[in-house]
Specification:
Rossmann fold; 6-stranded parallel beta sheet; 14 strands; 43% helix; 14% strand; binds uridine-5'-diphosphate-xylopyranose; UDP-Glc/GDP-Man_DH_C; NAD; UDP-glucose 6-dehydrogenase
Length: 438
């Protein structure tokens, strides 16, 4: 079986590598010539554990190809996946220009029955627009070639992308015919052999499922952050509350960790886009809107705790930031809380020293030399007045506090991810604060 995947971002590249690992012949397409040139050299543009080996193995086996031109493989493939970006417009809606461009190229060039499957997260109703764009191009050609559109949202998490793709909890596919369903079944059977959990449904429901899933997860986080902030005021501990509620099967244990806010390429964008879709349809999604509001506020919480620790005077204080990526195991800093915290600290006149195991280059690219880049987590704390933990990398979980205490000139530790034992740190003479506990 042969397929093409347009867009070699996170979703496109991981999907391409994983499909090819299952023996499918995959051509990955991207208009970015530099990116394709790098990929052909075996260079992976993103940090994702295991991806480099996977790509190399399948390129060497001759099952995974890269090109800048979709038309070179279009005649051979049964399915074209569209995994191009949908950056948010100023008003929060998803910009579909790349998605529709793929549709037009598809319409201008197909010669036989082919399915165009949208994998990018796109608002409900996009499939209709994609179909219209293809029909328009076919019309211009004066040809009547059979084709179909389908929706197959991707649920993989950065940092665990390969595992998530290889053994997904479920695969959701929106189709318009049995013929397309058969093709998609063939494609996904290898991934879910024994426990085949592909949910076929109508296209709008598939499009909606992705947004509902992300909005639900984001809601859990903002809910817990709200509860955490109240815990601090009433003298409760949010970690106890989390355990207390998570053991209820209906609630479940996962995704209930309070912290300094969610970031990344999905939650912030998708939550905004969903609110926008609601408004476009005359419906005000009040809960989801509040989720976004709470998260924006939560990104300031570490800064506020630092202000409090120094009685408002951060001018000239040296603050070490541990963790820049929006979560561990990635170098992605899109919408990362660290960006807000650093910005506020600089505005307050603090000196900022940062360390992250993989996101240093990304940080340099974004904020240049406004901050100092430390060689390691210990160098970052030399002469620091305070440490703020922003990303819960494993590396930060059990540091040598005695060394740190000596190296610092102050003793403030603000734990934005609740990874330390407060009692232990207090005994060592640190002034320790965390999220959701007074
Ligand atoms: C998310 C969805 O999980 C995935 O299904 C979808 O396809 C894309 O969006 P990702 O953006 O990779 O994936 O990150 P995820 O691991 O879900 O974490 C998102 C953010 O939530 C991170 O900033 C993380 O720190 C935060 N988070 C997560 C919490 O603050 N508390 C939690 O309990 C869980």
């Amino acid at each position: 079986m042969k397929i093409a995947i347009v867009g070699t971002g996170y979703v496109g590249l991981v999907s391409g590598a994983c499909f090819s690992e299952m023996g499918i012949d995959v051509t990955c397409v991207d208009i970015d010539e530099q990116k394709i040139a790098r990929l052909l050299e075996g260079e992976i543009p993103i940090y994702e554990p295991g991806l480099e080996e996977l790509v190399k193995r399948n390129v060497d086996a001759g099952r995974l190809h890269f090109t800048t031109d979709l038309t070179t493989c279009l005649d051979d493939v049964e399915v074209v996946f569209s995994a191009v970006g949908t950056p948010p417009d100023e008003d929060g809606s998803a910009d579909l220009k790349y998605v529709l461009e793929v549709a037009r190229t598809f319409g201008r060039n197909i010669k036989k029955y082919t399915i165009l499957v949208t994998k990018s997260t796109v608002p409900v109703g996009t499939a209709k627009k994609v179909k219209a764009a293809i029909l328009e191009e076919l019309d211009k050609r004066g040809e009547n070639i059979d084709f179909e559109v389908a929706s197959n949202p991707e649920f993989l998490k950065e940092g665990a992308a390969i595992k998530d793709f290889m053994s997904p909890d479920r695969v959701v596919v929106g189709v318009e015919s049995e013929r397309a369903q058969k093709v998609m079944t063939k494609l996904y059977r290898p991934f879910l052999m024994n426990n085949f959990r592909v949910y076929f449904m109508d296209v709008p429901s598939a499009e909606m499922t992705k947004y509902a899933a992300n909005a639900m997860l984001a809601t859990r986080i903002s809910f817990m952050n709200d509860i955490a902030n109240l815990c601090e005021l009433v003298g409760a501990n949010v970690d106890n509350v989390r355990k207390g509620i998570g053991t209820d099967d209906r609630i479940g244990k996962r995704f209930l960790y309070a912290g300094c806010g969610y970031g990344g390429s999905c939650f912030p964008k998708d939550v905004k886009a969903l609110v926008h879709t609601g408004l476009e349809n005359g419906y005000h999604l009040r809960v989801i809107e509040a989720v976004e509001e709470v998260n924006e506020r939560q990104k300031y919480i570490v800064f506020e705790k630092l202000i409090k620790a120094f009685d408002g005077g951060l001018k000239g204080k040296k603050i070490a930031i541990w963790g820049l990526a929006f979560k561990p195991e990635t170098d992605d800093m899109r919408e990362a809380p660290a960006l807000v915290i650093i910005d506020e600290l600089l505005k307050a006149g603090a000196e900022v020293v940062v360390y992250d195991p993989v996101a240093m280059d990304e940080c340099r690219r974004r904020i240049g030399d406004a901050v100092t880049y430390a060689k390691d987590m210990y160098e970052a704390v030399i002469d620091a007045d305070a440490i703020a933990i922003v990303t819960e990398w494993k590396l930060f979980r059990m540091p040598s506090w005695a060394i740190i205490r000596k190296a610092m000139c102050g003793n403030v530790v603000v734990d934005g991810r609740n990874i330390y034992d407060g009692e232990e740190l207090k005994e060592l003479g640190f002034k320790y604060s965390r999220i959701g506990q007074k």
